[in-house]
Amino acid sequence: MLLNLQSLLGLLGVIGACWLLSENKRRFPALLVLGAVSVQIGLILFFFALPSSAVVLNAISGTIAALANATARGTQFIFGYLGGGAQPYAVENPGALFVFAFQVLPLILVISALSALLWHWHILRWITRGFGLLFQKTMGLGGASALAVAANIFLGMIESPIVIRAYLDKLTRSELFMLIVVGFSTVAGSTMVAYATILAPTMANAAGHVLVASIISAPAGVMLARIMVPETPGQGGAFADYRSALRYDSGIDAIVKGTADGLMVVLNISAVLIVFVSLVALVNLVLGNFWLLGEPVTLERLLGYAFAPIAFAMGIEWRDALTGGWLLGVKLTLTEFVAFIELGNVPADAISARTRMIMTYALCGFANIGSVGIVVTGLSVLIPQRREEVLAMVWKALFAGFLATILSASVIGLLPSAVFGA
Q1: Torsion sign across C-alpha atoms 346, 349, 354, 357
Q2: What is the pTM (predicted TM-score) of this model?
Q3: Which candidate, 139, 137, 161, 138, places its Cα nearest to that of 147?
Q4: Which H, E and C letters describe 33-69, residue by residue?
Q5: Domain residue limits at 166
Q6: In a domain, 22, yes or no
Q7: Residue 73: helix, strand or coil by DSSP?
Q8: Which residues pair with 295 in a beta bridge?
């Protein structure tokens, strides 16, 4: 019970930190805060506490797997065993078969082409209007930004802007900031399966937790974004003009142009990821000349000590807080993928099951230094005329996106273990 109440520190601390950085502290969205947290709790109960929860989780997981499998077929046709096909050699480390360049980036191409085709068929236009009506009534979002928020839950921070590419130049500053924050707050469906596979040996129902973590962090990202960059009255939402001149000559034209747009994004993402991961490695080479508590200093270790109090505030026991802080540091500097690998490598008896579950939610988001480069380059391709605006807000968005997963983890910590079958 005390640990559940301890999670209130994380929840209130995150909201307070974002309010301190707000561009308009007087316009604190109190109703949105209450609504977003309520939506999170409601979704958690829906996915874990109802008799039919398992059926719903399996259905959604099946949809995600179908999209990933379809993409894998095309990837394997081109790259063979490098893309996950039949291996010509004996495999000693199956976990090493997941290659980001071959199993994640191709999904961007497929989503880009599929989105263009669905736009040409007017399907996405009607979906946009539907989401616009729903979120205008519940969270005050416009149709395009609402669709992007929903898409972020299962796609990713670049694929979802591609879905609403026709509307990107129409988004207000607050809506664009929210789009970036939610992208940092969630993960793509293409990586969920990998994360669940990594955690499965040491965590029960890993797939369900990874899926729900990405879902509930979306409203958290919306809430924190609205706190930090409130919408100007009379702009955005129902007042936004989402008409677009985007047209395709035919279905084939939509597929070809959509694929070309996706390819440009993929090339930029690949180059920037190489640079950012390399820069972190260079920093660690310099810090490695210094020692702390008998071990070489690394950027991740320093951030681990700094983040230990945050891990404690989420509801983690103090004996596990240093491990939790270290994992948060790994996520921020070396991506959440590496952090999930490290969490999966922590022995089952080294940390409590509660700590492992809370950390799964805290790590499940793209908020890391490398993602800053992905967002800047991806949106620079999609909306080059707003590149300076993106550069001005991306670091602030990273902060909000990082805290969004902390908030989600704190909400998980607030609920009794019985909700999750423990």
Answers
A1: positive
A2: 0.79
A3: 161
A4: HHHHHHHHHHHHHHHHCCCCHHHHHHHHHHHHHHHHH
A5: 2-72+96-415
A6: yes
A7: helix
A8: 292
Domain count, the chain: 1
The answer to whether residues 355 and 324 touch, using CB atoms and an 8 Å cutoff, is yes
Alpha carbons 294 and 296: distance in angstroms, whole number? 7
Answer whether residue 68 is part of any domain. yes
Mean pLDDT across 171-195: 84
Predicted confidence (pLDDT) per residue in 309-344, tens digit: 999 999 999 999 999 999 998 898 878 888 888 898
Confirm if 199 and 340 have CB atoms less than 8 A apart.
Answer: yes
Average pLDDT over residues 224-228: 95
Nearest to 261 by CA among 191, 327, 164: 164
Residue 120 confidence (pLDDT) above 50: yes
Q: Is residue 201 part of a domain?
A: yes
Chain centroid offset of residue 181 CA: 9
CB atoms within 10 A of CB 54: 13
Q: Name the nearest CA neighbour of 407 among 230, 229, 160, 218.
A: 218
- Is 84 inside a domain boundary? no
pLDDT of 36 over the 90 cut: no
Is residue 11 within 8 Å of residue 411, measured between CB atoms?
Answer: yes
CA 252/CA 260 separation, integer angstroms: 12
Higher pLDDT, 308 or 72: 308
Tens digit of each residue's pLDDT (9 = 90 or more) over 129-145? 565 565 666 666 766 77
pLDDT of residue 148: 77
Q: Token pair of 412, please?
A: 């998980």
The pLDDT score that the predictor gives to residue 245 is 47
Q: What is the DSSP string of 111-136?
A: HHHHHHHHHHTTHHHHHHHHHHHHHH
81 with 98: CB under 8 angstroms? no
- Contact (CB, 8 A) for 279 and 288: no
The closest alpha carbon to 235, from 155, 177, 290, 297, belongs to 177
**Would you tell me the crossing angle of helices 299-313 and 318-345 to the nearest 10 degrees?**
120
Instruction: Give the Cα separation of 388 and 137 in Å (integer).
Output: 32
Task: Tell me what the mean pLDDT of segment 227-231 comes to.
Answer: 90
The DSSP bridge pattern shows strands 295-296 and 291-292 to be antiparallel
Residue with tokens 């890993």: 206
Is pLDDT above 60 for 201?
Answer: yes
pLDDT at position 205: 77
